[in-house]
Amino acid sequence: MNSPNNSKRFASFRLLVVDDVHPVLFDRLSHIPDLECVYRPNFSATEVYAHLFDFDGLLLRSKIILDAPCLSALPRLKLIARAGAGLDNIDQSAALAQGITLLHAGEGNRIAVAEHVVGMLLGLLNRIPQSDAQVRSGIWDREGNRGRQMRGLTAGIVGFGNNGSATAALLGHLGCRVLAYDKYVHGFSSEGIHECALEHLLQQADIVSLHIPLSTETRSWVDHAFLHHCLKQPILVNASRGDIVVLEDAVAALESGRLRGACLDVLPVEDPQKWDNILMSRLFALPNVVVSPHIAGWSTESYQSISEVLANKLSDFFCNFQG
Questions:
Q1: Which of 6, 108, 132, 153 could form a disulfide with 206 if both were Cys (CB 3.0 to 4.6 A apart)?
Q2: pTM
């Protein structure tokens, strides 16, 4: 294999890498003969689309959307690998029907996501963002910033994949009673983690944490009707995808007290220039909300781990690739 900056002109398999990845990825793939990696992390979306016709594989994060019409125009494409969790920017049914192999690295950032979720929850429960801001402005208010312990709370995990299971384990270690629901995974109950129906989870949970992929089934799933079933005024956590939650309904639930708080690492619109300013002003006026810019799985360690996981999967793919 050629180094990313010194590629051969011709090779048996050409892989276009259009997002920043850890160098360990190229190190791990260096033993594969006849593989040409072309590393173009600075490509714009337009440039990616323009060059894809010349490649057998694509490695990306979220730079472009690969829908059915786009994929049908790429008959040479045999592989799409995503350096992250999930494949929601790819029409998976169309890709698989076209014989394209899909890979992602959902295992690579599970610890980072779990720790970030717990960090947001601890910050919210202990009023850390507010008290920090107050102290910086000369206000010393101990009683007004009395916190709440996490131990003894019931945490409801919706989705028991890589990130959900890691978050459940960490919350369990902190003394939470953990309930978990997954529509497609069953039989995962263990000591301290109890599999249950979604209705039971929403009735019992003090924390409802979302760890599900974005799909036609889950888009706008957490709406007014969903939140109406939350009986204990829980804290809503979303570290999955912003479009799963109807933000206006969540803000209304926070304003009415249906939700005790929210920890949001993702939003339906992640470009501040395109925000609904009225809705966002309502959200940011709430003292019981913690927001971060889609960084739950974005730690220094997960940056390397994602590339390691994906490199292993790519190695397996190329070992079995028949051309």
A1: 153
A2: 0.91
